[in-house]
Amino acid sequence: MLKKNVEDLCNRQVEREGYSSILYLSMASWAEANGMAGIAEWLYAQAEEEKDHMLRFVRYINERGGKAVIPAFSKPPEDFAGIVELFDDVLKHEQYITASINEIVELTLAEKDYSTHNFLQWFVAEQVEEESSAQAIVDKLKLGGRNILYQLDRDIMKLRESED
Length: 164
Ligand code: OFO
Description:
Blueprint: H1 4-33, H2 37-63, H3 83-110, H4 114-144, H5 149-163
Helix pairs in contact: 1-2, 1-3, 2-5, 3-4
Bound molecules: hydroxy diiron-OXO moiety.
């Protein structure tokens, strides 16, 4: 049985993972409407992954005798200043999610909830990957400037294809 404070933080994470999903969906749609098909593909796929992360929390909370709550989500931004700014936002958002996961990890240690601690390890590893792929794209964009955008769009499309 989940302790109430652990359940509450897990439910907070349901909202944060769900918001991540619609944030990336909005970014994907913006990129697609602006002719960046490869980047849009990458972001659509991220949106699906975040939905899966939300579901993992929902199912875990219910499995442990808690009650997962599906919240209303804030409306994500619909316009972005540019692709460099967009990926900067992705990176910052992932860093925020990492900090949020780490808070739950800390609470599970304080509460000696080793099952939830174990459940969270998948997310700890996932965040390392997500921060590093966002960072790699930000670095490429900053290194090459906007003139490499077309090439980068192709590269990201290929990256997505090779992950399938
Ligand atoms: Fe991108 O983060 Fe979920 O966990």
